[in-house]
Structure formats: structure tokens, C-alpha cells
Design goal:
heterodimer, A: mainly beta, 0% helix, B: 115 residues, four-stranded antiparallel sheet, globular
Chain lengths: 118, 115
Amino acid sequence: GENVEQHPSTLSVQEGDSAVIKCTYSDSASNYFPWYKQELGKGPQLIIDIRSNVGEKKDQRIAVTLNKTAKHFSLHITETQPEDSAVYFCAARRSERGFAGGGNKLTFGTGTQLKVEL
Amino acid sequence: DTAVSQTPKYLVTQMGNDKSIKCEQNLGHDTMYWYKQDSKKFLKIMFSYNNKELIINETVPNRFSPKSPDKAHLNLHINSLELGDSAVYFCASSQEAPPRADTQYFGPGTRLTVL
């Protein structure tokens, strides 16, 4: 099955700096890679996702890059703000029509606690 | 206008008891999930239902029994609760039929504490 590793487990940055979180995956058939933000006491919220047919996607201060050959993808947050402080999760899945072989199962990384300090 | 809702938000109970957690989504999605998040924040899928049919069962003890009365609801019943069942349980939903599949939307979670 799929295995997703995520680094670092904790990340502390100064307000206004950039933050980068990296993930690797094992299943070369995975083709969908979402990133979730989980604030204290809340459920994970999707912040950005990327599919394997593109190498980069950007949404304001957030960007995600994907290297299919190396099987790794990264989240980049620029101009960090205190409200960016949260736990971030990467995930990977193999999207298929139908559900044979667990194709719609989302495998999560272990999470990164991001702290943005004033 | 809540998308995925769960009840209760907190559940404190004694070992050996039986308890249920309810989940409802108003997004019109056809697939629902239960995840368990342990004390180290690790998120792991437990079950998935598509159109009321079980499609994923991740070797969860049979003390856990999901029930989907309709596409919008997926409840989780746990028998003979153990200390190790203490965790936060998240419900999620997604639309698996094309053209847009994959994105899973999570509920606010239910924190279960077994004493």
C-alpha cells in the first residue's frame, strides 16, 4: 500500500518568512496530492491540492510543487502570518473510477506543527 | 450551512460501554468516511461507504460497526469500549463520481475519552 512520509514534524518561523513542508510517497500510481490544515480543536481543511498532470500550483501565498520522478511534493507558504499556525498534513491517493484495490483511499503524512512567531 | 457535522463533539465514557457517533453531510456527496486521529495526530482511515455500500474496511476490530442508513449519514457504533479507543474520530465525505472526484471534506471531530 501507499506510504507517505512528511518532514519536518515541527517548524517554527518568524512572521513574514517562508515555510516549506516536504512529503514523499511510495506508490508510483498515486496521482492526487492534497494538503490539509488542521487548527486546534477543528477538523482538517483542504487548502490546496495538485494532480499528477501538473508540476506546480499556486493560490495566493500558498503553492505546491510535485516531482513525480522523485515521488515527492512540497507545500510552500510565503509571507507567513500568525494565523498560519496550525498542523499541516500532506496526503496521497490513487484516483480511479470504481473502488477496486482501495483506489480511493487517502493516505496521510504524519503532520507538521507550524508555529509562526511575531 | 454546516457541510459535514458530527455529534457529539465530546464523549466521555467508561471501559466496556457501548457508544455511537453520528455523522451527516449536506453536500450531496456519495461517499463517506470515518478516520481515527490518535494522540500523536496521526490520521488513519477506518471505513468508507459509497452509496450506502461498504468499500473500505481497514482491519478495524469488529467492535466498530459503521452504519449508513442513507447517502447523507454514516454512523459509527463502538461496542465494549477499551482504553485504546480514546482518540478523535473524524467523519468525511467526497463526491466520487466524475467529473470531480477526490476532495474530502472533514467534520469537526468527536473526541472520545475512555476511562
